[in-house]
Design brief:
It is a single chain. This protein has four helices and 69 strands. By secondary structure, the protein is mainly β. Strands 1, 2, 3, 4, 5, 6, 7, 8, 9, 10 and 11 form an eleven-stranded mixed sheet that branches. Strands 20, 22, 24, 25, 26 and 28 form a six-stranded mixed sheet that branches. It starts with a helix and ends with a helix.
Length: 778
């Protein structure tokens, strides 16, 4: 078996030198909570593996609780039809450690096991009713694939062995309990249950083992030693109240305190009052929902009601003012300012003076053409002030032909053909109004450009016909990009038109990450892309801040030595941070008389390790393990015997060491042997050559402590002269010792019967009692 294991380590060593592929692996013990009264086996399973070609695991447990009986291989790897080499099992119930593995003897990528399956089934027996943790040694457990790659980081999940009990959790309608159903809890453990009512429900009661605990939201079973039940009931919440009110000038329906079932909906209609007989017409001024203004809405629905609400409506009188004006010779009727409230319309009549004509009628500044009447309709008017202006032309007039491009308007704009008539000798001003996101591109008067920096143009003292052409263009904005060191901002094009959308991407360089992105000086977080929430209507500045990534190297030393950074950096809890792309060297420092035995980097054993190791161009987290040898076995003995060798005994790694356990004389015998705090007297052997009792450490992988104790043999009581019998000669010798006479015979120190560590009168009385009893029996 040791030859096979050495062969596997040679193959595994070669495989681990190849860069690891990235797989999300989980190796776990099923079930995670094992009741030894209900089962005598557990499985080692693997999840989410691809093209697996071999494995080995090492498992720790408490030998005072469990004894591992056997290990059988699962079919997960065998079903591939590959030729397989078993490794083990290696079971050590004295130390509480078991190892087992299988490796394929051929390399054919793509033919390995994939998916989920059972690697091995472990049979066990229970030594006590206690609790034991089953935990993997991840540094000595490996998974490899058929391409000779060590599969990367794997999660090795532990399990617990303990007697278990069942808590049955249930709930009525209207909510839930978590966890629910039959919940398994280990002996002496605890389990908390959370109770969550559904929307519109309340916790009514929680019963534990049939007894009410009240309307509580959590309950914890502590120190569980028997089965339990927990049941939850729920009840519906009472209805909520929506208080609806309306001010003067209208109403709301329904009104008052309106009850609505929890989760239900309710619609409210707001209606203003319109009394045409009294000229009293109202409009909705504002609506408050839970005190928050909603503007002049005519209805509102409360959806999924889960609390009380308020809604109130206020109203205001309608008010329209129309002011009439004239320009030139003519009249407008009515000529004064007219105020409307509930009237539906108001008509104005435009009349030019004799020999004059109507040139244009402007309503709120917008041309209506040379109309002789205009009617305002309150149904289509906004509240507030309005104007109507009549412009009259003299008998002699000239024409200004207007051309307006897309993206804006001109006032006046002329008739359908763009002609504006102007009386001879008068001035005519044109207002130039770009649309949103536009600006004036050019203004051409009589085929000559006058620029684009004016918002109006006036023809003075008109004595001839003219032309006016105005063109518009989209406003361009330049987006300023400021990527900091370590990355780039992608934005094409950098010039965008007003009203268009805009997005950009932020890309860090290698070894950098995004720290922050600022738009117009305001942080939007460490985002890799960003889209402006609204169309572009102004210039913007985009800044990106990058920072170097740091990776962690985890350092572990086993045995008699230490590992330290060569640049005198300090380790924090066995870890050191290294900036991405930089290198880090570690020195190996063995204690006196010790040396480096093994170096593993990211689980891979390094061939011929020297006194240091350097991680070059660090771009990921790493770990390094250094094992120093030899190991030390601390050997001590109690009174009446010795252990050879004794003291601090150095032992080479993976070697065997034998200790002799020697009583001082034939009167004493071995009492107990403790190794690392556990009795191993059952494993003591007798050396065939010397006849001495011995204990053997095999394949030493760590430091140990062995302590041996001795005791008197059970049949030595009263045998003072050591002739293997208790008689009158022993009584006489005892009296001589009591009288402090010089004795030349060898005295048996184990003849002490009252444990006062001396031979005296008590031993004589004990011996005489035995002699007297023997005589009576005869």
């Amino acid at each position: 078996m040791k030859t096979l294991r050495r062969s596997f380590y040679l193959v595994l060593f070669t495989l681990l030198l190849i860069p690891a592929a990235s797989h999300a692996l989980t190796i776990e013990i099923d079930p995670g909570l094992i009741d030894p009264d209900q089962t005598s086996t557990f499985d080692i399973t693997i999840n989410d593996v691809t093209d697996m070609g071999g494995f080995e695991f090492s498992l720790f447990y408490d030998p005072e609780v469990l004894t591992i009986e056997d290990i059988t291989a699962g079919n997960f790897l065998a079903d591939t039809g590959l030729r397989l080499l078993p490794l083990g099992p290696d079971i050590n119930n004295s130390l509480g450690r078991v190892s087992f593995g299988i490796v394929a003897l051929e390399t054919a990528p793509g033919t390995g096991a994939s998916g989920n399956g059972t690697l091995a089934t472990v049979g066990f027996s229970s030594e006590s009713n206690g609790e034991s943790l089953l935990s993997f040694d991840p540094d000595r457990s490996y998974i490899v694939d058929m391409s000779a790659n060590a599969l990367g980081e794997a999660e090795w999940a532990e399990a617990t062995v303990s007697p278990t009990f069942t808590i049955t959790a249930s709930s009525g309608s209207g909510g839930s309990i978590s966890p629910s159903g039959a919940v398994t809890v280990k002996s002496g453990g605890s389990q908390t249950f959370s109770i969550t009512p559904d929307s519109c429900y309340l916790i009514e009661d929680v019963e534990v083992d049939g007894e009410s605990q009240g309307a509580i939201s959590t309950y914890t079973f502590s120190d569980v030693s028997e089965d339990h039940t927990i049941h939850v009931t729920f009840t519906q919440k009472p209805p909520y109240v929506i208080t609806a009110s309306a001010g003067e000038g209208g109403n709301i329906s329904p009104e008052g305190e309106v009850e609505v079932a929890c989760g239900g909906s309710k619609k409210f209609i707001i209606t203003p009052q319109n009394d045409t007989e009294n000229n009293a017409c109202y409009h909705i001024a504002n609506v408050l929902v839970d005190g928050v203004p909603q503007e002049a809405i005519s209805e509102h629905t409360f959806e999924n009601v889960t609390r009380n609400h308020t809604i109130s409506a206020s109203f205001a009188l309608n008010s329209y003012t129309i002011t009439s004006e004239t320009q030139g010779n003519g009249t407008i009727t009515p000529p004064e300012t007219v105020t409307l409230s509930c009237e539906k319309s108001q008509t104005f009549t435009i009349t030019p003076a004799a020999t004059h004509s109507i040139s244009d009628v402007l309503v709120d500044g917008e041309s209506q053409g040379p109309v002789d009447t205009y009617t305002f309709l309150t149904d289509t008017m906004s509240q507030g002030a309005h104007t109507i202006r009549a412009i009259f032309a003299d008998p002699d007039f000239h024409t200004i032909t207007v051309t307006v491009g897309d993206g804006g308007t001109l006032s006046p704009s002329g008739d359908e053909s763009g002609k504006v008539k102007v009386s001879s000798g008068e001035d005519q001003t044109f207002e130039i109004m770009p649309s949103e996101c536009h600006q004036v591109k050019d203004i051409i008067v009589d085929d000559i450009s006058v620029g684009n920096k004016i918002s109006s143009y006036t023809f003075p003292n008109i004595t001839a016909d003219h032309t006016l052409k105005v063109s518009f263009e989209k406003i361009p904005y330049v987006i300023e990009l400021d990527p900091g060191e370590g990355g780039n901002i992608s934005l094409l094009p950098e010039t965008v038109e007003c009203g268009s959308s805009l997005s950009f991407e932020v890309t860090p360089d290698a070894c950098y990450e995004i720290k922050d992105v600022r738009v117009d000086g305001t942080s939007v977080g460490a985002v890799s892309s960003y889209e402006f929430p609204n169309p572009i209507k102004e210039t913007h500045k985009i800044e990106a801040v990058f920072e170097k990534i740091s990776h962690t190297i985890t350092v572990t030393a086993e045995g008699h030595g230490s590992i330290r950074p060569a640049d005198e950096k300090e380790l924090q809890d066995g870890k050191i941070a290294v900036v991405c792309g930089e290198s880090q060297t570690f020195e190996f420092v063995p204690e006196t008389d010790y040396e480096v035995a093994e170096v593993r980097v990211n689980g891979q054993t390094i061939a011929n390790p020297g006194a240091e190791h350097t991680f070059e161009n660090v771009t990921a987290d790493n770990r390094i393990l250094v094992v120093f040898s030899p190991h030390v076995i601390s050997a001590t003995a109690g009174e009446h015997g010795k252990i050879e060798p004794s003291g601090e005994v150095k032992v080479g790694r993976n070697t065997t060491k034998v200790f002799a356990l020697i009583p001082d004389s034939h009167y004493y015998q071995l009492a107990d042997v403790m190794v690392d705090g556990h009795s191993v007297i059952a494993f003591v052997q007798t050396d065939e050559g010397s006849g001495q009792q011995i204990y053997e450490f095999e394949g030493v992988e760590k430091d140990h402590a062995i302590e041996v104790t001795f005791e008197c043999k059970a049949d030595n009581g009263g045998d003072i002269n050591g002739d293997a019998k208790t008689d009158l000669a022993d009584a006489i010798l005892g009296l001589q010792l009591f009288c402090e006479k010089k004795i030349e015979n060898e005295i048996n120190p184990c003849a002490d019967v009252n444990s006062d560590e001396k031979i005296g009168l008590e031993e004589v009385v004990y011996i005489l009692g035995i002699i007297t009893a023997d005589q009576k029996n005869e």
